[in-house]
Amino acid sequence: MSGLDTFFQVIWTFLRLSLFSLGGGNTLLQEYHHLAVNRFHWITNSQFADLYALAEAAPGPSSMIVGLLGLGAGWPHGPLWGLGTGVAAEIAVLLPSTLVMVMAALSWSQLKDAPIRVAFERGLGPITLGILFSVGVTVLRTSDHHLPAYLVSLLVCALMLFTRISPLYFMVVAGLLGAVGIIQR
User: Fold this and answer.
1) Helix, strand, or coil here: 66?
2) Which of 155, 13, 167 is nearest to 96 (CA)?
3) Mean pLDDT of 13-26
4) Which of 45-49, 101-105, 106-110, 132-136 has the highest mean pLDDT?
5) Cα 43 to Cα 167: distance, rounded to the nearest angstrom
């Protein structure tokens, strides 16, 4: 596949996904993984885990993963293809959903007391939580491959659910465990 073919494949892929990200960009992470790793083979499973960690660690929107996936798709054709494909992927995933949200926000206040608005807002909560749980399982399967890593993930999940400890502390501890070699990929 040529660089131009990959470029248009990436744009078309993320344009189609743009309108399905209920609850933010991370809700599509499982689909991003399926397409980038399994279907199109733009990147490897390990590269996906690294790109996800980079996107989450960097300041900015959660959709940053899309630009990195586009970069990974175009990189085999050269750095300029990678950069162009990354930027195009980010625009493709953000532009349509942003336009829809602007139109919805402008008309949403007109429905402030309508029963359909209340029902819609209440219905999206459980759907989004289910999608995010599925994303969490995907991240766990992508990045954890050893018993200590699974145990740390489960412990962090439990502590996040039942305490008010800042996630930054968990990131520091997990980083230290990785630095000393207890957790490996």
Assistant:
1) helix
2) 13
3) 79
4) 45-49
5) 28
In single-letter form, the type of residue at position 127 comes to I
C-alpha dihedral (41, 32, 97, 5), degrees to nearest 10: 0
- What does the H/E/C string look like for 74-136? HHHHCHHHHHHHHHHHHHHHHHHHHHHHHHHHHHHHHHCCCHHHHHHHHHHHHHHHHHHHHHH
The two structure tokens encoding residue 14 = 């993320």
- The predicted model scores a pTM of 0.73
Given a contact cutoff of 8 angstroms between Cβ atoms, the answer to whether 64 and 55 are in contact is yes
* Cβ–Cβ under 8 Å, residues 141 and 48: no
**75 vs 103: which has the higher pLDDT:** 75
> How far apart are the C-alpha atoms of 162 and 152, rounded to whole Å?
15
In the prediction, which pLDDT does 83 show?
A: 97
Two structure tokens written together for 107: 């008309």
Tokens of 165: 């400890």
Q: Which two tokens stand for residue 1?
A: 């596949």
Of the candidates 51, 59, 45, 57, the one whose C-alpha atom is nearest the C-alpha of residue 82 is 51
Q: At 184, is the secondary structure helix, strand, or coil?
A: coil
Asked if residue 143 lies in contact with residue 156, where contact means CB atoms within 8 angstroms, the answer is no
Which tokens in the block code for residue 129? 């939580």
Cβ neighbours of residue 15 closer than 8 Å, sequence gap 6 or more: 92, 93, 96
